[in-house]
Design brief:
single chain, 160 residues, mainly beta, 6-stranded antiparallel β-sheet, globular
């Protein structure tokens, strides 16, 4: 699917999935990806993910750090593996104190995902919220995966 910009935020079309990977990171092993998470509409069905170790094709072979925002005080972060089928490796509800005062429309909320060897870590507002060890995918690219136009990312960045 195709990404659209909504007030400067990368979203997909309504009820559609969009996946985008950054070229030149195909051999990446250890890295951090970060972005600002924005919510325009609170929904159980829409979600936005940071992609780690993408091996493709299309929506296959990756770790997806998925954020779902059902309400301003009900946001979850989970780590999913797609290696022939989708499997949730870990999931946590984000602590309310990390969400308090977030300007969801304008500045969003800082989120990041880190891959170091078999260790995967998700941070929200600078604090660890989910971590897991899984060595299924050892290397690959990074990117974004968004379902719907009510949630998305801005300021996507990659670090070592």
């Amino acid at each position: 699917g195709r990404f659209d910009a909504r007030d400067g935020v990368m979203v997909s079309a309504k009820d559609a999935l969009a996946v985008m990977t950054r070229r030149g990171t195909e051999a990446s092993v250890d890295f951090v990806v970060g972005a600002r998470l924005h919510v325009f509409e609170w929904s159980e069905s829409e979600h936005a993910s940071l992609i780690l170790r993408y091996r493709g094709i299309e929506d296959d072979r990756m770790y997806a750090v998925l954020f779902r925002a059902q309400a301003s005080d009900n946001v979850s972060a989970s780590i999913w593996l797609q290696d022939g089928e989708w499997r949730c490796l870990a999931s946590e509800r984000v602590a309310p104190h990390l969400l308090k005062g977030a300007d969801w429309l304008r500045t969003g909320l800082s989120v990041s995902a880190e891959a170091r060897g078999a260790h995967l870590v998700v941070c929200v507002a600078g604090e660890r919220v989910v971590e897991v060890a899984d060595a299924t995918l050892a290397s690959g690219g990074v990117g974004l995966r968004v379902f719907g136009n009510g949630i998305g990312f801005s300021q996507f960045a990659i670090g070592g």
